[in-house]
Amino acid sequence: MPKKFANLTIDDPALTQPWHKIDYFELLQHMEQHNFHTTIAFIPRNFMLTEDQVAQLFRERNDRYSIVQHGNNHD
């Protein structure tokens, strides 16, 4: 049976809560409500900014969130 999929990709955010106007926990509610997935295009230099609660969210909810390393710090 055919399935429909949607993926939101966010470029270069830090895994901090919130990041600019993105609240990762609120975004999760929208993903569940509208059945989509979000991928974070993550640059390595943002690693040191990662907050434990956000990292835990990504580990626990890998059905909704994924991370892909992109680029090399924009150097």
Q: How does this model look, in words?
A:
This protein is of the alpha/beta class and 75 residues long. The protein is 27% helix and 21% strand. β1, α1 and β2 form a beta-alpha-beta unit. It is globular and about 45 Å long. The protein starts with 6 loop residues before the first strand and ends in a 6-residue tail after the last strand.
In short:
Helix content is 27%, strand content 21%. The chain has 75 residues and is of the alpha/beta class.
SSE layout and pairing:
Blueprint: E1 7-11, H1 24-34, E2 37-42, H2 52-60, E3 65-69
Parallel strand pairs: 1-2, 2-3
Comma- or semicolon-separated keywords:
single chain, 75 residues, alpha/beta, 3-stranded parallel sheet, 3 strands
Head-to-tail CA distance between termini: 45 Å
Q: What is the overall number of helices?
A: 2
SS elements, strand count: 3
Unreliable residue stretches: none
